[in-house]
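Retro notes
What went well: the complex prediction finally ran end to end.
Inputs used:
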Amino acid sequence: MSANGGGANGVALVVDDSGVNRMLLSRHLESIGISSREAEDGAAALAALRDGSSDIAVVLLDVMMPGMDGYETLAAIKSDEALRHVPVIMISGVDELDSVARCIELGAADFLPKPFNPVILAARVRASLADKRLHDAEVEHSRRQAALLDTIERQKEELSRFLSPQIAALVSSAEGQQLLAGHRREATAVFCDLRGFTAFSDSAEPEEVLGMLRDYHAMMGALIVEHGGTLEHFAGDGLMVFFNDPVPQPDHVARAVRMAVAMRERFAPLAARWAKLGFELGLGVGIATGYATLGRIGFEGRYDYGMVGAAVIVASRLSSAAEANQILLNPRAHAAVDELVEAEEVGALALKGFARPIPTVNVVGLRSPAPVS
Amino acid sequence: MTNELPLLDDSVLTELRASIGGDEEFVRDLVSTFLAEEPANLQQIVDAAARGDAEAIVRPAHTLKSSSAAIGAARLSAISRQIELAGREGRTDELATLAGQASTTWAATVAALREAGLAG
């Protein structure tokens, strides 16, 4: 910033075909700390304004000039998106008040009578510069606002890549905080993991293991989203999904079972591919319905949206107990989808941590391939 | 009436000097600019008058009016204003006389500026 204040105030552009007038105006501006540039006609003024490095904050514009006159110049400035906010003060003689009125209608900010009175000049230029600064501050504010919104959108997008879409939406919603705090409701938990995965990951090349997991996760991830499940976590070959929360789903058990059946079907060709290479992989699924607490679980810095309750443990145990291609249901889940599924008795399974054995069925298939909603 | 006005209006020059902190060099620079630029406008006035072109006479008359007023050349400014008005109102027959007066007044103004020590 120079002592003349060029940097802080911005520069004034003096447009007049009279060199005497330009000199006088520049001199008066200089005496109030505003540096100026000069243009002798409208075309030169527009060129100066459109110069990329222009820091012109106010234009003093004569009306009558050879070539492009003040009206045309003013109209060009006001119709240019990048320039229209630069205030224009018309320079005018006392016998030109009609033209001044016309210029103000065209968007001029003010007028400066000739002969120039330095006090009036200073007042009008300062007022226009203040308007310009206010406008610039508003523009900057809107720009920051837009940048902030943009960031939030990007974060939401980024978030939805890591979280299930329901959780990502929940986190950024108004009622989200309340739901995150924890609540109890009936929900269906689904666990699945791969039979033979440990042996596979021991003997296959790491690249093969990662490649296989990528295919598997992509396939499972798509089915989870398709059926409206809330993914709690992926861990190697295991994953846990729950239904009926945070978005209530009256058909949550059916959704869980349809998803599991679809997973089993889609997984078959993948398993066949790996079988050719000598690796036996099979999908085992456990599904359990019951009351549970849902909400934010974890600690500051690393929270998960999770489900806690006996049903979660049962689903996990059932998944471990399932043989390749089995989808095991607890009694409550089975009761809810009795009409929907073809099931076979597996018997009462003694599950770790549960005093009494739990009667379990395996889903053989769906009675009618109901459409996925 | 125009001839009653002073060639150089002392009150304007006094005000001008006051507004620029008595910077005499700046006043001389201003006058140099005036003397360098305005003959072109005067020439355009004379040419337009000779052609009887009322429309073309307005702009140079306007500029000469404004520049001369700024340095206190009151009589030249007044004549220029008359020319501008005559041009605007299409009073073509008056242009030649007025342009002649402008030329005479120009010469007198330059002499007055020299006399005042404002022009070399």
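What we learned: The longest strand of chain A covers residues 282-299.
What to try next: split runs per interface for comparison.
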